[in-house]
Design a protein that fits this description.
Elements (H helix, E strand, L loop, with lengths): L4 E5 L4 E11 L3 H16 L9 E8 L2 H8 L6 E5 L8 H6 L3 H14 L3
Parallel strand pairs: 2-3, 3-4
Antiparallel strand pairs: 1-2
Length: 115
Amino acid sequence: MFIDLLFFNRELNCLVAVELKSGKFRHTYLGQLNTYLAVLDDTVKKNHENPSIGLILCKDMNKAFVDYVVREYDKPLGVATYKTSKDMSDELRKTLPDVDDLKRLLESEDDTGDV
């Protein structure tokens, strides 16, 4: 078990653990995330930092079900959905950079040592 993404939010002064799920929300995801938050707070968090918070990003969820499940947890965590480029309108998709252009840009930065 590994955290998918771990950030530090300077404004909130806390660690932010993000779990990425490709399917529909399952209640077991909250137990997994709650465990990660407990471990982070016990082993990684500094004394001057606020408690860690968690976020589950999943493809789909039943909001009423999530609201019932989340309220039983005492750690700050949330659940949200995401959209892929296939789910976006053509207008929004056109504003995104081309994937091949991004790959070329990243490869050229690796070659020069610049980031």
